[in-house]
Structure formats: C-alpha cells, structure tokens
Amino acid sequence: ECLRVQAGVPPRGAVARTFGRSPLSDDSRPWYIGALGELDVAGRLGSLGEDWTVVHSVPIGTRGSDIDHVVVGAAGAFTINTKFHEGARVWVGSRRLLINGQATDHLRNTRYEATRTQKLLSAAAAADVPVGGVIAIVGAKQITIRERPADIAVLDAARLTRWLKRQEPRLDQAQTVRLSTLVRDAATWTSESQHQPDISGFDALHREVVGAKHVRMIWGGALLVSLLGLTLPAAIAFYSRAFGG
Q: Among candidates 109, 189, 94, 101, which has minimal Cα distance to 146?
C-alpha cells in the first residue's frame, strides 16, 4: 500500500535532493512507518524456530482488511498487531492505551482481530481454538504498564519472541500441526482470490528515505558549526573585555 500511494508522488528535483527533502508524501508516510514496524516484527518472529508457524499480512474478510501477523505454536494461535511509535511514551491501562497522552484504538482493534480469528479458526478446525491478541510496540521510548488488559498482551517488540516461547502449551503435536496447516490456507481467512504484490521497490524507497535523512543531518551539523563559528569569537571577545583577559 505504501508503494501504491508513493507511485503517484513526483520524483524529487535536484534542489530537493541536495537539501534532503524526504521522498515520502503526507499520504504515503503513515504507510511507510507502518511497514517499517511490520518488517521489524516479522524479522523477530523469524527467529522463533521450526516449532512455530508464522504468517504475515493475513487477509481477512472481503473488505481488504488484514492481520499483521498470525503465529501458531503449542500455546495456540496469536494475532499480533504491530504499532510503530518511534520515540513515544506508551501508557497501558486495563481499558486504555495512550500514545504520548493521546487515546488510541489499539486495544479495541486487537481484541476484534483476535475474536474474529478465533471464530474463523474454530470453524475451520471444527473445534475450539485458543487465540490470544498481542500488541507489539516498535520504537517506543518508554512503555508504562499501569494495569495489564485481561485479554490483550502489550509488549515491547524486543520482548515478543521470548514472551511467546514462555506461554504454556495448550495443544498437542497433532493439534498444532493441524492448526498450522489451517493458518497457511487462504481459504480459512477469506473467499476472495489473493495475489502476491511486488514489494521489491520498498528497499529502494527505504534507502532513499534514509539517505535524505542523512543529508538533512549533514546540513544541520554544518549550520551548527557555522553558528558556533560566528558566536564563539564574539563570546571570547565579550569575556575578554568583561574580565580584562
């Protein structure tokens, strides 16, 4: 989605590149930030090992919705809602999750995803399937858990895989294998035909965004040096006159 929106953005001109203007538009930036968060968590989940099954961007329903990640192991199934809040202060209560003091819908949306997934998997398995909801926070400066929600786990993404591995087993091997097969089957999630989008251009876009940020940092450093160069001699002269040095 980030690449689709970004495709309509005109390329930067020479001046914009020279001064490090971001190639992202206001519309594509939220999708880009979300993609960074999902890629971060996807990389972490890849280290779970062969006892786990992980699927990403799981289509659900008929309206283009998806679940960031679904994980299956002996502890059951987990829907993981990834949120990238770089440098933010996160506050978690039993019924509210605040980002820098602002209320969010993260708990409600994650609860809805987990409930919907539980119904779909249970129907496909013809048995009750345990499903837990998880919010994985990427890039936050601080996460304060005032009161843990009863049905949703809120974690720093860096702790996600360790938390999953510590969950109590609830399925035997045959049940785990059966559930893993079901989550990989697109028919479990939606009746719509699916196609794999080409996301090869995202790495190039990411390099361009990072490069633009570095250019802005260079300009900022040069400006600081220039300001110091102007103010330092004046400060030295001032103190010399004031103290007779």
A: 94
